[in-house]
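Field: sequence (string)
Field: structure_tokens (string)

Example rows 1 and 2, in order.
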Amino acid sequence: MREACFLFWAICLVACASDPNPDALRRLRSGEVKVLGHAGNGTRSLHPANGISGILCTLANGADGVEVDVRLTLDDTLVLYHDSELGSASHCEGTVESSLWTDIRHCEHRALMADDTLLTLQRLINYTSLKGRVLSLDVKFQGQPDQLARERMVAAIAHALEQRTNGENLIESQDRAFLTLCARKGIRAKRLLYTGLADEAAEGLRLDSIDGVSIEMGLVKVENMSLWRNEGVYVMLWGATTRQRNTEALNLLPDAIQSDRPRHLCGLKDN
């Protein structure tokens, strides 16, 4: 009985999901709105977040690219991992920042599908599936970064992205000084401020050499998007956890959507 009720609820949820407006669909199908898998294939996927199995699945399903979280080891290796503690989502202990890459390279993610080990950004970039796709790096620091931490991170990202000659790069961070440093060092990427402010001023972003914002879709209204669009601010939305939320995000007409259901958006793009 419980299974039958759940199936009925799931069918109703899909059936009641509204369709995207025609302009949103046009922008999606023309490539003006990019579809990115959040943390690879979405945090609600059976694949591990930031694991290669989910990333390759998303790209194979036709997404424009992926968003991944990056942290820096003691020996300046960029590792794809979200949480501050390794024990929260992998079978290892400690932190990425306090570890050498050789000590954690065999750590496996905790997941229902695929025994993925931790992945370096360098290895991800070498996959042919990523060529020509969008790669968004959500840069994570352990606590509030000082200038040395920023400089180490910038140097590591610059070195990694030098090897990537085909595809668009985005860098997301809550730290404005870090994004400004990325610009000064000439890193080839759009710089996005990870913000909770729907009225983030375009003038302030330009003064800090920041190209746009990465923001939870529930915080944004149509008037915010119109203002940012008129000011030339690049907008990436996240928080699209369901098909309905995908549609709501798409109707806001952003430049990119980080989706936990990327396959649904890819299906809308191809139909």
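Row 2 begins here:
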Amino acid sequence: MKIGEKIYCKDRYGKRRMHTVLECEQCGEIFIRENYLIENGRKFCSVKCRGLSIRNRLQLVCAYCGKHFERSESKAANAKHGVSFCCRECKDKGQRISSGISAIHPNHYAGGEYVDYRRLAFDAYGAKCAVCGIANETMLDVHHIDGDRGNNSIENLIVLCANHHVSVTRKAAKIEGRKYIILGV
């Protein structure tokens, strides 16, 4: 059979009708279709191929793992930095300082010179609250005394538990000379 060849075949009701040999516009598979369906513009071998032909999808490559994936044109256009990832896990890994992609690093990474001020404070003062002495690392925060998160000098850092840290940030208490002072008492 050749593409475009006309042949007679029985339709689904058993009547002999004129059919044409066609090539699917989506997948390239050769198939036979009744002539009246061709006149209506149906030149696909299946509903799946027709659906794929009308989708506006882009083929992209994940910037982190290199995996090929599809994304709609509108979502691909919304990428802030023009970098696409196949999943959230790859985006998170790509954003890391150590193994990440600098185009999507947050501004506070300062060109990859990230300072782990939490680790600095724990090493200098120990992993315990300066006020109550709680020593559970998951409950501890490191507070910048002058309020400047860019100033990571050890003199500007103090280790506080979550309760004391929230009272300082909400202005119910303050830190003066490395001492915790409750306001309004």
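free_text_note (row 2): Residues 57-112 form one domain.
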